[in-house]
Amino acid sequence: MRLEVMRMRLVVALALVAVSLTSLAAVTRVYLWPGAPVEPPAPEFRTSFPSTTRSVRIRPGDSLVSALAREGLAARAAGELAERLARKGAQLKKLRPVDELAITWNFRQEPILVRYAPSSWVSFTAAARPGGWEVTRSETEPRVRVAAVSGEVYRSLFEAIEAVGESPQLVLAMVEIFSSDFDFTADTRRGDRFRLLVEKRYAGDTFVNYGRIVVAQYLSSGQTLSGVGFAPAGDGRWGFYDPEGRSLKKSFLKSPLEFTRITSGFTYARPHPILGGVRPHLAIDYGAPMGTPVRAVADGVVTTAGWDGGNGISVTIRHRSGFGTMYNHLSKVAGGVRRGVRVSQREVIGFVGMTGLATGPHLDYRVSRHGQFVNPLSEKFIPGEPLAGAERVRFLEHARASLGRLAADKPF
Question: Are 166 and 234 in a shared domain?
Answer without folding.
Answer: yes
